[in-house]
Amino acid sequence: MRCLLNHFRGVTCYEDLRTISGVLYNLYREACYALGFLDDDKEFVDGFTEESDFATSFALRILFVILLWSESMSQSRYVWEKCWIYMAEDIQYKVRKMYQHPDW
After folding, report:
1. What pLDDT, on a 0 to 100 scale, did the predictor assign at position 13?
2. How many Cα atoms occupy the beta-carbon half-sphere of 23 within 13 Å?
3. Taxonomically, which superkingdom (predicted)?
4. What is the DSSP-derived secondary structure letter of residue 102?
């Protein structure tokens, strides 16, 4: 909120702080992202995309958990939505093997 208060002068209500280009954001953090004050974690998405060619899905899941524990990502949901497919590539194979059903 401090970033928004420094950016806008003369606001009269909290909603004015969260309104960017006519869009009212639910959270101050979302408004800061819209203004570019905070990182969007694109480097993590790029890293997962690049590593998906070399690392196993299990290793990518471990890496994601480590990043969550260390609070390195500011938008972990964004990274998850962009990269979950890389972390889940082996699940279909494991389910087929577990149920001995190769056609699934």
Report:
1. 85
2. 12
3. Eukaryota
4. T
